[in-house]
Structure formats: C-alpha cells, structure tokens
What does this fold into?
Amino acid sequence: MAVGCPAGTREWKRRQVAHDRPDRLFDESALNSSCEHVPGAVQRNKSRKRSGGCQTTWSIGAILYGDAGVPVHTEEPPCALASTYTGCVAGNIVVRLSLALPVCACCLAALLSGAPADPEDPVFRAVDLDLGESREVHFSNGTVASVRLIARDEIRDSVRQAVRSARVRVEVNGHETMLNCGNYRLPLTVGGVQIDCPVTKGYLANARTNPWGLDKDARLRVWPAASPLLRPGTYVYPVQQRWFASDTQMSNEPSFVDGSEEPARKRVYYHYGLDIGGVEGLTHVISATGGLVVVRGNGVLPAYRDSPYIEINYDGVIVLDERGWFHWYFHLARIDPGVTLGSRIRIGQNIGVIGKEGHAGCWSHLHYEIRSLQPSGKPGIQEGYAFLWEAYQKQYSPDLIAVARPHSLAWVGEEVVLDGGSSWSRTGKIERYDWTFTDGGRAEGPRVKRVYAKPGTYSEILKITDAAGRVAYDFAVVQIAGKPENGWTDRLPPTIHAAYSPALDARPGQTLTFAVRTCRTTYGREIWRFGDGSAPVVVKSDGCAEPASPKGYAFTRHAFKKPGDYIVRVERANERGERAVGHLHVRVCAQ
Ligand SMILES: [Zn+2]
It folds into this structure.
C-alpha cells in the first residue's frame, strides 16, 4: 500500500493501481484533483487523517469487503417475471488488503470515499463536453474511445417552458448518432461502445439549482461494448415491488405527482433523483449497495458533517459505497433499527419503509439518488435510471417492460404526444402497442397524439404485446391545465397518487392494501374500480389538506379471486368536474 499521501487521493490511487494492475490503463479523469482533496469527507482536522489522531479502531478487512452471497430478498419470485431469478447477488469484490489494518473512522471514510475497490469500478467513463469539443476516454481494459459533441437541443412545454425532451448529436469512434438525454432513456450501443447522455445545459436555464454539477453543454457516459453498466454483484433494485408499480419521478422529469407542476412556478424542480412511489408504511426499501452509513436520521459521521455530498434530515439514510458514491434514501416512514450510524450496511439489507416524511410533499415515495464527483470536478448527481433498470432486469428477469413515462403537461387544446417507444422486450420485438384512453378511446402504435378539451389528470393505458402473446402495461400521466381567463388564476385540476402492497407477487385470495391521495381538492371522494367485476369502493383522502398528515391517504383492501392482469382505476373530481384518474396494474399469479 502506498504511503506518503492520504488514502483516496490521486497519488495514492496511482500508486495503488500501479502496484495492483500494472498491466492496465487507468483513466485518471476519475481521480481526485490533488493530494489534499478527498471527495465526500470533509477533513476538518488534518491530524485526524492519521491513525495517531483516532479514537476508534476498525478492521478494514471486515468492513470493506465480503458481499458474496448476501440474499437480496426472501420473497418468492413474481410470476411471469422470474424465469432466471437468482435470489441472491453473488459478490465479486476484489480483496486487496488481506491484512486487517487498524484505522480510524475518518481514515476509513476517506478510503471509502476516494478509493474504489477495483479500478474497473465504475466501468464507465463520464465526460462533460462543449459543442464541438472531443475527448478520448480510456477504459480499464485498455481500449480507447473518442467522443465528440456536435449539437444539442431541448424541447420545452408551453405551460412552464420546462425541458420535456433533450437530445444531443454525438460522434462516437467516427459514428454519428442522436441520443435522447435523461427521460427514462437507456444507453445506446454505437461505434463499438455504449453511451448515454444524463443531462444537457438547457436544463440549467430554469432549474432551481444545478445539482448535476454541469458547466458544459452536455454530459456523456461511455461504457465498453457489451459491458454491464455497473460491476456485477454491487447493485440491487432498492424497492421491493414491481417495476413501475406506482408513479415515479426520474431522469430529470419535472416533479408532478402531488400537483407541484404549476404554471406560475417559473423555476422547475427537474427530478434528477429517483422517486419511486409506494404505500406509506408498507413498501420496503433495501440498500442498493454495500457501504458505510454516513447519515442516519439527524445523525452524521463527523467527517461528513459539512460534505457537499450529503444532506441531513430525520427521514433519511445515506450510504457511501466502495465507488465513492453517496446513496440517499429519504422520506422514510421508518428507518430499520439494524441501520446504525457508522456501521457497514450489506447490499440488500433493509433500510426502512416508504413514507412521506421530510420534504416529500404530499405523496408517499422513496426519494433515492446517487451523488458523486462529476467530470466538472464538482459534486453532482449520478443519473441512476439505467442502474435501476439493469438491477431489476438481473433480479427479476422480466420478459417485457412497458414504458409510457415521463408524464406530460399541456394546456387545454394543445396536442400531446404519448410515447411508449422506450418499452422493452427480451426478444427484441414488440408486436403491438395498444392505447386505451381515459375517455374510452383507443389507438395503436408506439407513439400517438391526443388533444384534451378539459383540464384534468389523465392516465392513458399502454399495453404492449410480444410475439408469444405476453403483455405488459404502463400508464402515461397527462396533466392538462385550463388557460387563465381574464387574468384569473390558472384552472388547475386535481392530481392523484395511487399505490398498492404487496406489489411483487399477488396470489388469488390474497388481501392487498390500496392507498390513494388526491391533491388540489378537498371536494368529493375517490372511487376505486378493481377491474374484476366487483362493486366500486368509495374512500376519502384528505385532498392533501395537510401534506404531512399521517391520515392523509385513504386505504382500502381488496383480494382478487382469479389469476390475471388487472387494471385498477381510481379517480376523484373537484367541484368543477375536473377529474384526476390513476391506474395500477396488478398481476395476480396462479397459486
Ligand atoms: Zn424526490
């Protein structure tokens, strides 16, 4: 092990890599900029970097390594999802230090924050480019790729001028292509590599802040061809429910579920993190990675108190993984007692249950995000949608996934494009795209256009079918605002959030819990229709009168008698008759 430079710094890493992998190239752009800078940890007292200043003695060998074979969860695989479900994640951690060395907590933190266990991790390289700029990226396997940014543009809505679509034209190893950025898009394979574009500069024009740490025109991430997106065995899907079981806010789509898309709000909260809706108090959250618990509720490890990579609130947990990434889990209704500050958390370990605590607004969800050092040299968001996607694919082996996200926002009378083109089939081919609209209308094709005559929150059903007749569903949420008339305030319809639990593997006769909450109106009630011929069920949520109210949601229970795919609908109208409609897809498996 190198000496003379604090662990986690450029020099320390250079020596470590040179020592351990003399045969490999190493991309120094991923390293820290100086011997003094250790990302994440804030060294208030330099003497604490040395073990002589420490009060706590830990064993590196016991804390850093050893994830092999940790169960992810113990439930049955969901039906029609898990033909190759493994049930556990095989660890693939390279053990560098076989001797247990005494180090202090702050030294361990520096190690964790600055020194990935393997120079191949992360397996991608990120670069920020201005228009016309090109860059060579060097992968750890010795290959090199060249990327150039040719053009970028963003499409904005006419209600808030928020970015709804962003694209870049890039040249990759001499091949030109167009990439869609963020917005539930996955990396493309082009020019012998995989490449994606997490964010472009256009977002900064009216974003509330610059959480991406982006200064240039666009950020690109590049992986070797056919490489996994993250090192196998180091990442799992952090919520124990089906993919898209409820609303999500991801990939820079403006925050919308609880009515926060208001025309008058000029600054947009582009949701750079990964919000995953669930049932308050019931939907379990597990740790996506192994790592060190640096924040638990209001507690924080002293070395991180002023870190730009964290925030502290009573409702959250932040885990620092071996890549030096900070994983945020917020709005938790409960934090599992097994999660303790300063302890090592295992991949897949329980973190807590979904809630609407802290800054959740009016809806129950996990706010999950990843923060890490960005190519700009600033701390920023590590876009995580593709990592969630890959993890879910590995754990649950779905045959089909329908994607009708992100949501849309438009004025009455404007044309809205519904796009199911990001849907996916294991066979590579989707035979049919069938849309069923809230008003009963139907259409076919991956992309369809609609015009809405009345304000409302619409939920348009996308059903995709593969050649074997397998189906999957998703719902395109469309929020339609009434135009202001005579200087009156905007006519904004209610919005609605629905979720159910357990949302992994329902069985005939099993009682499921359904939760709903409407926002922007306290008028009327919610009506559930379960799609199985049973009578409608009427409930009443508080209409988001008190966002943090523990009684905000209305709960009901339902059991489906027979196996099948059920489209559950729930809706509520305000005094003007403007409706908010939500859908859930419940798959009930054979016994
Ligand atoms: Zn969030």
Q: What stands out?
A: The chain has three domains: 125-224, 248-384, 394-588. Confidence is low (pLDDT under 50) at residues 1-39, 43-116. Helices lie at 10-20, 60-64, 105-114, 385-396.
